[in-house]
Amino acid sequence: MTATEIVTSVLSLIAGVGIFLIACTMMSSNLEALGSRKLKSLFTKASKSKLLGVGVGAATTAVIQSSSATSVMVIGFVNAGIMTLTQAATVIFGANIGTTITGQLVALGMFGSNTISTSVIFATFAGIGAFILAFAKKDRLQKLGGIIAGFGMLFVGLSMMSGAMSDFSELDSVKSFLAKFENPLLLVMIGAILTAVIQSSSVMTSMAITMVVTGLISLNQGIYITMGANIGTCVTALIAGITSTKNAKRTALIHLIFNVSGVVVFLLIGLIMNMCGINYGLLFDEIFPHTPQIQLSMFHTIFNIITVIIVLPLTNLLVKLVNKFIPDKKDKRQKVTEPSFRFFEEHMLRTPPIAVQQIKNEIIEMANTAVSNFDTACSIICDLNYENIETFRFREKQLNFLQNKLAQIIGKLLKEDLAEKDRIYLITALRTIIDLERVGDYAENIIEYADKLYDANTKFSDQAINEINELKKLLMALYDQVMTAYRDTDKKAFQNACDIEEKIDVVTEQMAQNHIRRLSDGECTAEVGMQYISLSANAERIADHFMNVAKTINSYS
């Protein structure tokens, strides 16, 4: 080969890897968007048994073509309380089986040396998908076009990688150099490092299959490189876990321990086989003769299935182990001093459908915080007991934090390729967080009214306090119905909320009349009455803001 041909082959290899990566991303993002509504219900089924959890993980990863995306979903569901860590572990085990589907597709695309190559046939889907993307108007059709185009581009990238490696296989110097890497441990390390760099075990495995088929490396070398790819794929989750919640760290650690355990077991088996004069390459060449692409892809699948069989019975032990490595803080005196998210993590932006779900969880938590501050404010103004004022102040900081940060994140998500329902929801969410922050502001107003009563050394009458408590009960009942409607898109709960809101209007009007009567009878002062009327007006406005939250379901239900 001339220098020009070598440079051309290197550039073709880089281009092929790039196209393959883009294809994986296209397929993953569009499949996630199409299936986002069903993913949550699918994952909740994992709680029924460990085997079902493995099946859910394998099916989800096979469909969305991304074990990393599956891991992010799992972390989100654990944080949201939808799944336990044990259930999450079984889904991750299954994800390792599901991720082998890409290797099987690549192997399928490498048949046809004397006829039209299956890779060329499958590559035509890139054009079909592109036509759909160009002319489709409906969102779902565009997503389908993206999936088809991504599938075809997998094989375009594969053809470029295969062509480049075929050129390199003609160079004896390259083959001689690669043949020196025979140490299994070294090959595992190479596979792990390269996978960590390109952040895709599917690409690494596909490259290994191509190198074996073109004769650049032996089947045995490809097998150990593939083992290393299984370890390297954990790096992304580990990096994300460093700055994430404890559950995220534990989930990432479970993934790492699972993959390392499988590699260790297969390395030991390989060592014993070598002592008997056989290796994995010879074994799989006997089982699947004359088809190196099938030999390596099947090893990858069998490797992960056997690892699941070994580790699955030890799931509870594994969960206990990671809980010991990453324990909860036992010092209950330690309190959170800075506002923070409870459910959302920055790396979830890589999986928009899950990010949207976690945004909703944060908004529900924001609503809980706002109504808790209203409850505390009513207690303080009635009793003039400021014991919980610091908790109140912290919750107010949390509300301000959530309003600002959620608005920023929603802005980022709206730039992503989202399902139409998710896009509409996020647009309404921008208004919702403003409504909830305003609830917090009105709660602050009530505290200010309490301060005025305290400074004037006066307080509400028992009758006024009873009326405030009755109003608070109605507002809490309204809140419960509003959140049921918001959380579950429940139209019946929405109607119930409308009925309660009408009662609140009547009650606040009656409170104003009662105040006028007490004032004329000399039962209260004008100063006390002013704070009382202001409180009832603020409560009515809080009810209006809660109703604004409930009304958003009419936009996307």
Q: What's the quick description here?
A:
It is built from 23 helices and no strands.
Describe this structure in words.
By secondary structure, the chain is mainly alpha-helical. Helix content is 80%, strand content 0%. α1 packs across α2. The model has no long low-confidence stretch (mean pLDDT 83).
The profile of the biggest β sheet is:
none
Strand content: under 5%
Structural class: mainly alpha
Shape: elongated
Average pLDDT number: 83
Tally of DSSP helical segments: 23
Q: Percent of residues in helical segments? A: over 70%
Number of strands: 0
Distance between the termini: 63 Å
Radius of gyration using CA atoms only = 30 Å
How would you spell out the order of helices and strands? HHHHHHHHHHHHHHHHHHHHHHH
Low-pLDDT parts are none
Q: Could you give the topology of this structure?
A:
Blueprint: H1 3-44, H2 50-64, H3 67-79, H4 85-98, H5 101-108, H6 118-135, H7 139-169, H8 172-179, H9 184-198, H10 201-213, H11 219-232, H12 235-242, H13 246-275, H14 280-287, H15 292-311, H16 315-325, H17 352-383, H18 389-413, H19 420-455, H20 462-488, H21 491-520, H22 526-551, H23 553-556
Helix pairs in contact: 1-2, 1-7, 2-4, 3-4, 3-13, 4-13, 4-15, 5-10, 5-15, 6-7, 7-10, 9-11, 10-11, 10-15, 11-13, 11-14, 11-15, 12-13, 13-15, 13-16, 14-15, 17-18, 17-19, 17-20, 18-19, 19-22, 20-21, 20-22, 21-22
